[in-house]
DNA sequence: CGCCTAGTTGAGGTAAGTCAATTCACGTGG
DNA sequence: CCACGTGAATTGACTTACCTCAACTAGGCG
């Protein structure tokens, strides 16, 4: 986490020590049970240490749009603390391990070490670039391109935390989850995956994504990982 | 702007005066000419004082996805400064008037008055809620629901700055622009608008949106304006 | 006066959805 | 140890929402 935030703001020893005090309660959540509920306020935020989760919104007719998946190192429910109201729910994909950050602690740290606040918010704003990318995905790309882009983005993010590379990665998602993330039906996700497998681009099978031809896939999806990177501290 | 930021962080007199120094150069841009280009860095940010603009991403095949429209009071190109790289372009819909905020000035202000930085980033993070809402729109709602939700959201935002109410508002957008925002074709936008007009829900004609039956429309679109509001300062 | 852009409408095509049946892996209880 | 149920993946047949192409209208402007 310190590494992540350090990308935006060079943190002082004091600020780092404040970060330390936040790192306290470890908690475990079981797969499939919501840990943040849409429409509730005053929640805690969490940092995911192991396992996968996803944030989503529910429509009244029961449909679900997954906004993003979270992998180790990501925040969970940060916005529900920042905006004092959760506009989305968060659910673990697998059993997960998190470290809890109390809303009150976080706000207190913000008040006394505003540079820390800046760093956190900066990181949050970078996440927005990802949501924008999803928007383009769903709005203007066909099913196969969406899927390709999605799998590549996940791969790139996992590579940053050492859980994947250009050959592939372990992926605990079901086709139903992918469907809800990509705005497709589960049946169509299946068809698209088969098609891509037959074309020798990617294979998703038994919880594992293998890039059969990374370059061709990246070309096909117009994938440019620039929006995921952050080079050096922006604020000295 | 001060009012907008004050919603997140109670600003001191000193911080307000720093804000003042930022408010300097007024500039005019003509409709249809990009003011921020995808893939460029080191740009200025702007605050829109009059007119409408939109931020978008271009795909290689020439398709365009509009991410959001900006109305008076909104930031333009803030992320291109924060992340030192523009991941999207911004283009005026009408002729617009803006006040320029130099990237260097902004970063300097961030360094010396970090609480100000916090406020700005907080506001930016609130904008993300809007993008998420669009994601749900495009991913899981049909064309009519999307359109309804879109028109209602614009109306609510314009009402906040006194440019609209529950009866309607002036709207300089073309059907082509709406199509690119909603991930539809222009032809289909036209059909959907006709349908909604015939059903007595909304009328969009001659640059003016009239809500013929606001309640029914809001019900139809599952529109909940909560994500647009912010009540009091979160940080004393 | 003619051109250009925005809007409108119709006809026909297609990507993706829905419904439904089948398989397979897994866990659970008799 | 086997019968059973359940959840994920798979595939086929059919439907539909939205797209594309195309023709036409109307206003603005050099």
How are the SSEs ordered, and which strands pair?
The structure is a homodimer of 236-residue chains.
Chain A: H1 2-6, H2 13-22, E1 26-29, E2 45-50, E3 53-58, E4 64-70, E5 75-76, H3 78-82, E6 89-92, E7 96-101, H4 103-112, H5 114-140, H6 143-160, E8 164-165, E9 168-170, H7 175-182, H8 186-198, E10 202-205, E11 208-211, H9 214-221
Antiparallel strand pairs in A: 1-7, 2-5, 2-7, 3-4, 3-6, 8-9, 9-11, 10-11
The structure holds a DNA duplex (30 and 30 nucleotides).
Q: Could you explain how this protein is built, in words?
A:
The structure is a homodimer of 236-residue chains. Chain A has 9 helices and 11 strands. By secondary structure, chain A is an alpha+beta fold. Chain A has 2 domains: 118 residues, Jelly Rolls (Sandwich); 87 residues, Arc Repressor Mutant, subunit A (Orthogonal Bundle), CATH 1.10.10.10. Chain A has a 4-stranded antiparallel sheet with strand order 1-7-2-5. The first copy, chain A, has a 4-stranded antiparallel sheet with strand order 8-9-11-10. A 3-stranded antiparallel sheet of chain A has the order 4-3-6. In chain A, a hairpin with a 2-residue loop joins β10 and β11. The first copy, chain A, is globular, with a radius of gyration of 18 Å. Chain A binds a DNA duplex (30 and 30 nucleotides) through α8.
Most extensive protein-chain contact, per-chain counts = A-B, 47 and 47 residues
CATH topology of the largest domain in chain A: Jelly Rolls
Strand order in the sheet with the most strands of chain A: 1-7-2-5
Which CATH architecture of the largest domain in chain A?
Sandwich
Multimer state: homodimer
How would a textbook summarize the main sheet of chain A?
Answer: 4 strands, antiparallel
The SSE order of chain A reads HHEEEEEHEEHHHEEHHEEH
Strand content range of chain A: 15-25%
User: What is the CATH class of the largest domain in chain A?
Assistant: Mainly Beta
Shape of chain A: globular
User: How many separate structural domains of chain A?
Assistant: 2
């Amino acid at each position: 986490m310190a590494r992540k935030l350090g990308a935006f703001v060079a943190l002082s020893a004091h600020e780092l020590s404040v970060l330390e005090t936040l790192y306290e309660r470890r908690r475990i959540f079981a797969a499939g049970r919501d840990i943040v509920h849409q429409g509730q306020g005053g929640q805690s935020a969490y940092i995911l240490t192991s396992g996968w989760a996803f944030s989503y919104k529910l429509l009244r007719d029961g449909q679900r749009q997954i906004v993003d998946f979270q992998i180790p190192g990501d925040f969970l429910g940060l916005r529900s603390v920042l905006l004092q109201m959760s506009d989305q729910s968060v659910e673990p994909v697998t059993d997960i391990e998190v470290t809890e950050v109390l809303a009150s602690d976080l706000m207190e740290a913000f008040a006394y070490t505003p540079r820390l606040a800046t760093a956190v918010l900066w990181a949050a704003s970078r996440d927005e670039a990802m949501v924008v990318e999803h928007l383009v995905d769903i709005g203007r790309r066909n099913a196969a391109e969406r899927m390709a882009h999605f799998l590549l983005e996940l791969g790139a993010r996992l590579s940053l935390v050492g859980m994947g590379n250009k050959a592939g990665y372990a992926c605990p998602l079901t086709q139903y989850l992918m469907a809800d993330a990509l705005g497709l039906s589960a049946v169509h996700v299946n068809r698209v995956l088969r098609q891509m497998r037959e074309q020798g681009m990617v294979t998703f099978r038994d919880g594992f994504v293998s890039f059969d031809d990374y370059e061709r896939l990246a070309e096909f999806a117009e994938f440019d990982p620039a929006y995921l990177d952050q080079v050096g501290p922006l604020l000295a």
